[in-house]
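Problem 12. The chain below contains 247 residues. Write out its predicted structure in token notation.
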Amino acid sequence: MSALSMSGPTGGPGGSLVQRAIDDVRNHIRAEGLRVGDSLPGEGHFAVKLGVSRAVMREAFGVLAALRLIDVANGRKPRVSAIDGAVIASSLDHAVSTAQISVSDVWDVRRTIEVRTAALAAQNRTDAEARAILGLAEAMDRDHADMDKVVAHDIAFHDAIARAGRNALFVQIVASFAPLMQEAVPAAWKTREAPEDRHSTLERHRTLARAIMVRDPEAAAQAMDAHFDASIGDILRGFANPEPADV
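Solution.
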């Protein structure tokens, strides 16, 4: 029996058995140079290697799957997963709902990141991506009376900009903001009752898209900054003054 299995339910000073099993699987991925989609040995392999029960490995694999580090779909070998912004989104939602951070904190961070993604998109976008970004800005205008469509277009617009920038981490971080946007965009839109206010909001999206289209990183960054200048106040007012619930 290994020292690990003899160390008791907590695994001794090195941490719990489950945590040490998790660490071993992650170390295996690194040591073997595995990439997204590559298969891993099963629970039995690691259980024998570490001298732990299959139940310990099953729990370790479950944690790794919940963190989206591995995929353990039924009937398939465990595989290395792709980075997933949903994990970040879950943490953000938890932090906001438990008052660890505020909506304004999230938007401040988002602003910093998305100003950079706009500049990168202007530098690195393909012609097809530039057309798609402009098309989403125009779709927001076309469907401005349908809030569900406006929200979907807005989320897709920011996602497309991040993807055009060619930084995979930015893509996932921007994606993590989508759940909050589903609440924030309608809240902000309700503060823009005057037609000219709504027109200005839609025009800022087009200005940003056009800066990316003409490959002007400085103008794209400035346009994104201006977009957040105008939007953050609307968003925070929307959250501060929600409509009363239907009764």
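Discussion. Residues 1-14 have pLDDT under 50 and may be disordered. Students who got a different answer should revisit the alignment rule from Section 12.3.
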